[in-house]
Amino acid sequence: MDTDVLVIGGGNAALCAALMAREAGARVLLLESAPRAWRGGNSAHTRNLRCMHDAPQDVLVEAYPEEEYWQDLLKVTGGITNEHLARMVIRASSTCRHWMRQHGVHFQPPLSGALHVARTNAFFMGGGKALVNAYYRSAEALGVEIRYESPVDRIDIDHGIFKAAYVNGQRITARSCVLAAGGFESNREWLREAWGQNARGEWPADNFIIRGTAFNKGVLLKHLLEDHQVDGIGDPTQAHMVAIDARAPLYDGGICTRIDCVSLGVVVNREAERFYDEGEDFWPKRYAIWGRLVAQQPGQIAYSIIDSKAIGRFMPPVFPGVKADSLPELAQKLGLNVDTFMRTLNTYNGACQVGQFDHTALDDCHTEGLAPAKTHWARPIDSGPFYGYALRPGVTFTYLGLETDDTAAVRFAGQPSRNLFVAGEMMAGNVLGKGYTAGVGMSIGTAFGRIAGRNAALAAAGKGAEHGAVKDEV
User: Fold this and answer.
1) Which terminal Cβ of the chain has fewer Cβ within 10 Å, N or C?
2) Contact, 289 vs 393, CB < 8 A?
3) Checking DSSP bridges between strand 3-8 and strand 170-179, what pairing results, if any?
4) HSE (side-chain half, CA atoms, 13 Å) at 105
5) What does the DSSP assignment read for 159-228?
6) Residue 325 neighbours by CB distance under 10 Å
């Protein structure tokens, strides 16, 4: 065999798997499709990890118990989640940081503009890029072999048993394998196929921007689902999809392209009409539904409108908003019908029932007699200057993936493979059927990356997989 454990992928989940397998004594080869400078996939764009904790822990304040975490996940997924696997991820998030620190990851308190997450999310010092670099340094020091610009386009499987992978025509054999190669969000043809053509004759996917890596083409995922009939899970149109600045680059814009002022104002579509409750819940629990909402609007574009009262209450985006001294002027600058825009804004302003405004709580500022309602943080938009941000759907990662269990094994007709495992975005659909809440993707990748790595090392040694999350002492 060329190696004991082959890890396909180069982001957080893949690195966690490689480190765990190497710590267990296995020879490990990691294949990253991107060049070294772009290594780490979407993990390089992350900021934090959602963590369960029953009491204050260094950078985490107060408590965030298992049941609250579960209820938050249940709410955003609408119940489309595997509770057993989800709770396993939640529990694993309470103890993994000790292991992460051992591999060079440092944590810091959240920035003041990171709303509502000081209690729930542990932030990486230096962000996701620093985390990825720390893991790569640790992997190299431990003797993990790393190859860049090594995309895997197909693998050999015999009756559910992994045999080999092919990279640029080269056949690489291994005793076991971990699949952690991401989703298919940067495959425009597959996105078009998944989303199809809408009733307006539009192809919505043509207007999607990819927040993350350009290297997640889903080639291996499609090969597994179509050629090997691996058990799949998830809706191909479901994704971590955020409303981002329409001026963002096509790929790798990352966190700085997000527009975080949605809950402080109103959002209108191309027809200058509102279409959803901007104040439904705290922004970290709702930001990832807005990409899909915008994708369903004409032209896949919308506009976040705020006034001067909102300035300083959200993390400013990298590009300044369109600024105007009056609302009609703002509508003109945004290319919106002025009469419809003013009717929408006047109706909203007249419906606002202003109580005690508090953007750190689910306050009592709401609308009455308005559809859709704004249930919190509703204040008239009446204090110039006014600002508008054009929004497009920004896809972070897709949820279509491979079904698994608490051993992280890939399944064939319901039967788990003895030596093929999956982690990260390629199996996140088991936990995330739809929706998202900040930091949970890193929780899933860390938990299942470590499980997959442990069990791949056991399989390489001729032993059976262990069930359940990896436990660490804090």
Assistant:
1) C
2) no
3) parallel
4) 27
5) TTEEEEEEETTEEEEEEEEEE----STT-HHHHHHHH---TTS--GGGG-EE-S-S----HHHHHHHHHS
6) 10
pLDDT at res. 411: 98
Pure H helices in 310-394: 327-334, 338-351
Q: Which residues of the chain are modeled with pLDDT < 50?
A: none
C-alpha to C-alpha distance for 199 and 202, rounded to whole angstroms: 7
Q: Collapse the DSSP code of 287 into the 3-class scheme (helix H, G, I; strand E, B; otherwise coil) and give the result.
A: helix
Task: For residue 408, give both structure tokens.
Answer: 């992280």
Q: Which fold has domain 3-183+218-238+399-460?
A: FAD/NAD(P)-binding domain (3.50.50)
Whether 447 contacts 92, CB under 8 Å: yes
Q: Which DSSP string corresponds to 94-161? A: TTHHHHHHHTT--EEPPPTTSTT-TTTEEEETTHHHHHHHHHHHHHHHHT-EEESS--EEEEEEETTE
Measure CA 401 to chain center. 14
CATH of 240-394, one of 3.90.700.10, 2.60.120.280, 3.40.50.40, 1.10.1060.10: 3.90.700.10
Domain boundaries along the sequence of the chain: 3-183+218-238+399-460, 240-394
Going by C-alpha positions, the residue among 145, 14, 3, 103 that lies closest to residue 452 is 14
What gap in Å lies between CA 330 and CA 324, rounded to an integer? 5
Burial class (CB in 10 A: 0-12, 13-18, 19+), 322: middle
The secondary structure of residue 317, as a DSSP letter, is P
Query: In whole angstroms, how large is the CA radius of gyration of the chain?
Result: 23
Tokens 């390089």 belong to residue: 44
3-183+218-238+399-460 and 240-394, same CATH topology? no
Q: pTM of the full predicted structure?
A: 0.94
Q: Give per-residue pLDDT as tens, 192-208.
A: 999 999 999 999 999 99
pLDDT tens digit string along 221-261?
999 999 999 999 999 999 999 999 999 999 999 888 999 99
